[in-house]
Amino acid sequence: MDRQNQSPTRLTDGLLLEARGIGKRFGPVEALVSVDFTVGYAEVVGLLGDNGAGKSTLIKIITGVYPPDSGQLFWEGEPVHFRSPRDAYERGIATVYQDLAVVDLMSIHRNMFLGREHLVTRRLGPFRFYDAGRARREAQLALRDIGIDIRSPDEPVMMMSGGERQSIAIARGVHFSAKLLILDEPTSALSVKESAKVLHYIESARARGLSVIFITHNVHQVYPVADRFTILSHGQSVADLRRGEASQEQIADMIVRGHELLAELRKAERED
Ligand SMILES: Nc1ncnc2c1ncn2[C@@H]1O[C@H](COP(=O)(O)OP(=O)(O)OP(=O)(O)O)[C@@H](O)[C@H]1O
Ligand SMILES: [Mg+2]
Fold this sequence. Notes:
Shape: globular
Bound molecules: adenosine-5'-triphosphate, magnesium ion
CATH superfamily: P-loop containing nucleotide triphosphate hydrolases
Largest sheet: 6 strands, mixed
């Protein structure tokens, strides 16, 4: 199940993920109103928007936390109904949250194989043991693969910096053949230097054929690495742009002026 031997980019020009007309309401709050959102193969998409724009809600629908009220998800061209995060995970969707990325007290190798210990067990008669030697070697290789050199795979994650923790979670996604990595505000708490490193790991992941959704309300954190940007405002998609189509300043402006853009879109629709 290692991606290493697979070709990094798929030859099909189809989409890895398509969310079509997604709606979600929480009581009186319309969190999402008929949102279209797509992710191509080996594509990094920045999902942008101000507080409360609907970014996390959209991600929770994509990862099976909530069902949508309306609309449909397609995964590799097929309609899918994820009933739980596990369903999404089994299809190859790995989500990395800033705080929950790793378990502090555990070593790096334990974190790498968390929930997948069966892949590194050794049999001894009727017993199965966690093969720490193998886990150490594989963890070190997986990290080196995306350009991370660790001091020792036995080191507890607690001793690592925020950027290093993120890197372990990203390496885990790459190593276990995730097809889509979702990073919710991954760099917001990091130093400039650490953020640059995380962007570098994201580039390594894309070079291996993975797609990435990078969620943030600060375009400057994602601009250097994203191929495309989707901007949400008040639960609606107000723009979907390739990197060459807008500068960082223009995108930052669209995030802030979401309300006005929506009004303009509605006006244009009425005039059509
Ligand atoms: N479980 C919930 N119950 C009720 N309302 C919710 C729930 N989750 C989200 N909302 C509301 O839906 C809207 C969109 O929230 P969401 O968390 O998706 O925004 P966001 O873009 O992720 O914002 P942030 O940048 O602050 O994380 C907000 O008005 C929020 O209050
Ligand atoms: Mg959010």
